[in-house]
Amino acid sequence: MKRIWESFNCSMLFKDIYGQSAIKQRLIREVTEGRLPHAVLMCGPEGTGKLGLALALAQYLCCEDKREDGPCGCCNSCRMSAKLVHPDQHFVFPIYKEKSNDTTSCETFLPQWRSRLLKSPYFSYDQWNEELDSDNKQTIIYASESDEIIRKFNTKPYEADCKVMIIWLPEKMNETCANKLLKILEEPPEKSYFIMVSETPEMLLPTIVSRVQRIFVPPLPEEDMREALAKQYGLTGTALTDVAHVSRGSLVAAERLVETAGDAKEYFDLFVSLMRISYMGDARKMKDWTETAGKLGRKRQISFLAYAQNMIRENFIYNIHNEDISYMASDERNFAQKFAPYVNELNIAQFLSELDLAQQHIGQNVQAKIVFFDLAMKVAVLLRKIKM
């Protein structure tokens, strides 16, 4: 299937970003009226457009022919922004180092950063690590990066009349790095702007947060999700409605759902089968189910158990009549109509505990057939804990 932003042009105009109209209007107004703070913190869940908004704002600040609805997209500055090579727009993001004394900086990884952004401005921290091919190395923003930031901000602009520094996931900053930035955040050079893009702002130093203007970028409404999914994937009907609902306002989650649609159907069937045969207490069918689950492969077994935990949580929410915050696809919701009463206050905690334990055991290379047969028997007991 066509991926979101497959033909993405990084000449990011505000109108290219799905939803978030109030935030777009606010940013445009503050720029045109000369009231934009020198440091902005865009925060919220992944996949809501924060990084796209940061790119559009940076391009707008540097644009030579600003329009009422954002950057023109045509001037020399916008053309450089489109290729992510504008000399007055800088990027900081988590990276890894081979050795503790390595002098590597974000500049070293700019080719990978540009490649990832040109694919899509909607991506997760894990997807970035895959792009880096970090081989499970910890990726952070190192202390030495603060010296680079200060150096870049202490030079005059080359093309535009301002400088812009986009820091993606500032919560990944080494504490020394964060502390070194306090002074320049407090007293920035004239016409210098920090745009921070965060998903866990509570992890930032309070001294950083106190020096920035915080803008919350909320999950996208389902109407905007449907527009994006119809345009980027050609989804229609039930598939469009389900993905728009289950992804909870995140285009990153939506892309993940579309790409794993086949797995999700298999996991759903496997979950339904487990609940039914466990309720019947049929040992022979439990054994057959165990054989099926054992053939998934370890990575998919772990994914299935994560899916099962989510289904148990969603059925519990459905059972206590909080359907508005229950995020299930239509086939899952149809199953929940009869199954949900079997997930209640008496067994929800143990249900989740047993599934989590099974997931841990699979991750520790315990024999899958033993883990899954044991799980099926425990589920059989838990399903009989029904409120009278």
What do we call the CATH topology of the largest domain?
Rossmann fold
Biggest β-sheet description: 5 strands, parallel
Distance from first to last alpha carbon:
47 Å
Structural class: alpha/beta
**CATH top level assignment of the largest domain:** Alpha Beta
Q: Which spans have pLDDT < 50 for at least 5 consecutive residues?
A: 4-9
CATH architecture level-2 label of the largest domain: 3-Layer(aba) Sandwich
Number of domains: 2
Question: Could you give the order of strands across the largest sheet?
Answer: 2-3-4-1-5
Number of helices: 18
* Shape label: elongated
Spell the H/E element sequence. Answer: HEHHEHHHEHHEHEHHHHHHHHH
Proportion of residues in helical segments: 40-55%
In words, what does this structure look like?
This protein is an alpha/beta fold. It folds into 2 domains: 205 residues, Rossmann fold (3-Layer(aba) Sandwich); 123 residues, Up-down Bundle (Zinc Finger, Delta Prime, domain 3). Helices cover 52% and strands 7% of the residues. A 5-stranded parallel sheet has the order 2-3-4-1-5, sandwiched between helices. Helix 13 packs across helix 18 and helix 15 crosses helix 16. The radius of gyration is 24 Å and the shape is elongated.
